[in-house]
C-alpha cells in the first residue's frame, strides 16, 4: 500500500499512518527501532530498497528525509507512506521537504519516532563534519555513513576521524568484516607468534583498503604497506600478505565470491568470502547498538600505521 500526502505536516502523517494500519488490520508490533535516512534524493529508491531488505532481520520504522534540489523558498512538506508488501517488514515514511530553513530536521521527525525504541541514522550519500553534532545525530544511538561515497581514501578517513564520536560507524568498515575474521582465524590456526611485515593491496583510495591496513597496523603494532593496485574488475581489497615467523600467509580475492588462501607447507585452497550487498552491510550494523570500539580505535589510532608502497 502506498499513500501520497501533499502539503502535509508530521502530525497529519502520524494520524494517517495509524488510520491506514487500523484499516488494513495490521498491528505495528515487534518494531525494534526507528531507522532515519537523510539523503539528497538521487538514490532514494536504492537506499529504501536496501533498508527494506535489512528490515527482514530488523523490523523497524524507516523514515526517509529526501531533499532533492529545489529553488522553492516556500516551506512545504510532501510525504509518502508505504505499508505491507511495499515496505518489506517495515513501515516506510518518505518526507520531501522544500523551502525549509536551518535546524528543522529534528522537529520534522520527532513525531514519527517509535516510542521507547532506539534511533539509528544513516547518511548514504553525504558525510557531515561530525555526525553526532547534527540534529539527527543528537537523537540517535548509532550513526552510519559510507566513506566510499566520499571518494578520497585515506584523506577522507582522516576527516571522518576528526568528527568521530562513539556510536559512529562506516559501511566501508562493514565491508571488511569477512577479511578481518578470516585473517584472525588463519593466524590462530597457524599458531603464529610474530608477523614481521604486512601488505594490503586494493583499489586506489578505497577506504576499506585503508581501514583494513589500519586494523592490521593497530593489531600488529607496526607499519602496514598499502599497494594501491588491483586487477580489472576487482573492487575494494584485492590481497593481504603477511610475512610471519612461520612463512608467508597470502589471502587473495579470486572473484566476487571466493578468496584463495596460501599458507606455508600446505596446498592453496579457496574460501567462500562473497562481496556483500548494501542490505547485508546495514543489517550487520543494526545488530549492534552499542559503540563499535574496534572501529573507533582503528579510525582514530590505526590509520597512522598506514604507509603507501613505493
For the record, the count of structural domains works out to 2
Describe the sheet with the most strands: 8 strands, mixed
**Number of helices, counting only DSSP H or I runs of 4 residues or more:** 10
Find the structural class using helix and strand composition: alpha/beta
What value does the average pLDDT take?
88
Number of strands: 15
- What's the alpha carbon Rg, rounded to whole Å? 22 Å
Q: Assess the beta-strand content as a share of residues.
A: 25-35%
* Low-confidence segments: none
How do the strands line up in the largest sheet? Answer: 1-4-5-3-2-6-7-8
Shape: elongated
Helix-residue proportion: 25-40%
Order of helices and strands: EHEHEEEHEHEHEHHEHEEEEEHHE
Brief rundown of the structure:
With 310 residues, this protein is of the alpha/beta class.
